[in-house]
Amino acid sequence: MFRVLARIEFQTRAPQTALTWLTSFNLSRSAHSLPFATLEVEEVSGSQPAEVYNLVQGKWTGSSKWNTLVDPLNGEPFIKIAEVDENEIQPFVESLLKCPKHGLHNPFKSPERYLLYGDISTKAAQMLSLPKVYDFFTRLIQRVAPKSYQQALGEVQVTQKFLANFSGDQVRFLARSFAVPGNHLGQQSHGFRWPYGPVAIITPFNFPLEIPVLQLMGALYMGNKPVLKVDSKVSVVMEQMMRLLHYCGLPVEDVDFINSDGKTMNKLLMEANPQMTLFTGSSRVADKLATDLKGRIKLEDAGFDWKVLGPDVQEEDYVAWVCDQDAYACSGQKCSAQSILFMHENWSSTSLLSKMKDVAERRNLGDLTIGPVLTLTTEAMLDHMNKLLQISGSKLLFGGEALKNHSIPSIYGAIKPTAIYVPLEEIVKDNNYELVTREIFGPFQIVTEYKQDQLPMVLNALERMHAHLTAAVVSNDPLFLQKVIGNTVNGTTYAGLRARTTGAPQNHWFGPAGDPRGAGIGTPEAIKLVWSCHREIIYDIGPLEEYWEIPAST
């Protein structure tokens, strides 16, 4: 099934090199053929299933067990995954163990690899900028994690811009060092960013391309050797991206790619003992891994993300639209999705809620602006809704029904965009708080209202939350912004009239705060924090003073 892909040899880094390579790609391929791909997106079906392989020690391999995935829109078996079981992990363990703790490259070892990865990023960014390539990945994302074309395309575009950001010399700039004068002639201390060596990356289903690519490339830039596991429901996307990266010059031995269940991956981590693991996913699994790995982990886990509307009411249509995008885009399956909305009482006399309802009701399965929920069933979400409605004063604002006239398999969820009003006084009660602040990874949000003198109660509710990923403070009142921002902790907080909770672009830090295990993504600061550690080297070469003598012992 595999195509033989010629290894791209890097020549001198002349300005024409990447352009010549890209022109060659455009001239040598038809509009219906991609040199890296092993599938055609629209042809993947029960009669022509895609096959997803593993990559270990530079070779694509199958496994003794093939797991079949069903199409999340119609239930048809359409992808076969070569899932590695516990008895087949040894090649992956050996591959990680071969990598020394000082990494594949560092400032004193193979520094030309910093340039190599700048070139790889240049070529991969150019590939993803081609319409036939970005359309391929956009449609492939839609097949396995159904979302609107624009939402899927946005994920590809962020990935492309990230790669462009780290083209050329930008990779070696990540390893920039500093020096401090010493106490005497010949002494200087130098600080360096140092790789961990063997590392692991575990990423979820909801962003099949963006999260794994950004974290994988960050790990590689800094000199690490990663094993990458993406949720099997969507791993076909990253398998195809790995092939694109190989086509762009990524050495095939630099990354291992594994399909497995959680138990098998856990055993791999225990036996290979990577120096650092990046986990993006649920808080429950994150806490287990933190214990198993003795703290050698960075986390970007769950987020019950909040939005506070300030006292200055303006631009109702815009605020309603952003609330809808934050809560229901990608069917609410974003770790940054708006989970709860705190409205200042001044908004109660406006038509905000009715406008939110109107915008939400435009969503439909036809264009995938609403779609299947891949981690919760319809029954589980509606059961949670019914429990909330038993709280005194709560009410259904809109939604609250299963989607109709569809063929989404019952193992997945399918409900209309839903909003439940719960009084603030009830939310903060001990017997309600845990239920209200349970994250539902679907098109579901809580709405409440607070009076001017109840802002301290709102801030207390925010303080009690456990996950601090994203937040939005919608106000242009500088004193209000100052008050809320100064008394909260969320790592990615948007402030101002246009504030949102969602959005993880390549141009700013995205990650939680308030947890020393917290990971970031996308920026130089995030890459250096997650994928390198500090090493200090103190040069002390002399000379000694001309008449130096051995001093008295101390």
TrEMBL record:
One of its GO terms (molecular function) is L-glutamate gamma-semialdehyde dehydrogenase activity. One of its GO terms (cellular component) is mitochondrion. Signal peptide: none annotated. The keyword Acyltransferase does not apply. Pfam families: Aldedh. CDD domains: ALDH_F12_P5CDH. This is Aldehyde dehydrogenase domain-containing protein. It comes from Dipteronia dyeriana.
